[in-house]
């Protein structure tokens, strides 16, 4: 905690920033912290965001008020047309942004079965995609994922222009830092460190060499108004703190 702001609240703000400038688009956050972040963005600097994969009861302070409805057919049209920015989880992710949520070990005989591939290939090839990792560790940030579900920049480059047309990996928010792919070879680098986190701690928790500038900034602090919204309106029961304990 820094100045009364918890690590979880820095993560919420970092997730919210992922949707800055997106305009009128469907935000699809997965996880407690991304959901709080998307709602914070909607209530502050991104009022055009649509926040639903079905029935929308998550924007205002009253949980009983239905703000909108998005039938699944229309949802799929937004996904395939690029009018959706999803923030997914990742059981594994490599330096190019290849993501695994399917299994650990050889897929023919995995040591552990996870969610399955689900919509990850469609998400990454058709609309902007970001990732949320609540526990930054070498188990997640690996040299090579055991199975590719979400498609990274190296595989898209190998596929050619057709594969890259709508491919857009934006950022990876973790409990330690915010990372993006703004490097010449489109590999991960650290964009900002959360207060109290050192570059060495992030390198130690990452299973491959990571680009961290000497002057890397701190993740921005939530404003007093944002803190009030997070604590009193959006997440008064503190789901964010259970996902990222202080």
Automatic annotation (TrEMBL):
Keywords: Transferase. Coiled coil: none annotated. Belongs to the 3-oxoacid CoA-transferase subunit B family. It comes from the Bacteria. GO terms for molecular function: CoA-transferase activity. This is Acyl CoA:acetate/3-ketoacid CoA transferase beta subunit. InterPro entries: CoA_trans_fam_I, NagB/RpiA_transferase-like. It holds the Pfam family CoA_trans.
């Amino acid at each position: 905690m820094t100045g009364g702001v918890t690590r979880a609240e820095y993560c919420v703000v970092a997730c919210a920033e992922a949707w800055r400038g997106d305009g009128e688009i469907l935000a699809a956050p997965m996880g407690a912290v991304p959901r709080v972040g998307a709602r914070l963005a909607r209530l502050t600097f991104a009022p055009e965001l649509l926040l639903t994969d079905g029935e929308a009861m998550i924007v205002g302070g009253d949980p009983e008020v239905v703000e909108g409805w998005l039938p699944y057919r229309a949802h799929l049209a937004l996904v395939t047309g690029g009018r959706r920015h999803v923030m997914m989880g990742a059981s594994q992710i490599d330096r190019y942004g290849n993501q695994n949520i399917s299994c650990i070990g050889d897929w023919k005989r995995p040591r552990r079965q996870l969610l399955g591939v689900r919509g990850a290939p469609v998400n990454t090839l058709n609309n902007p995609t970001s990732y949320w990792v609540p526990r930054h560790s070498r188990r997640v940030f690996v040299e090579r994922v055991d199975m590719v579900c979400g498609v990274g920049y190296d595989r898209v480059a190998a596929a050619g222009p057709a594969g890259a047309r709508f491919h857009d990996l934006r950022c990876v928010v973790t409990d330690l830092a915010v990372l993006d792919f703004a490097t010449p070879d489109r590999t991960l680098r650290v964009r900002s460190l959360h207060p109290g986190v050192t570059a060495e701690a992030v390198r130690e928790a990452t299973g491959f060499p990571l680009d961290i500038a000497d002057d890397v900034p701190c993740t921005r602090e939530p404003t007093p108004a944002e803190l009030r919204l997070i604590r009193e309106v959006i997440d008064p029961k503190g789901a964010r703190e259970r996902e990222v304990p202080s």
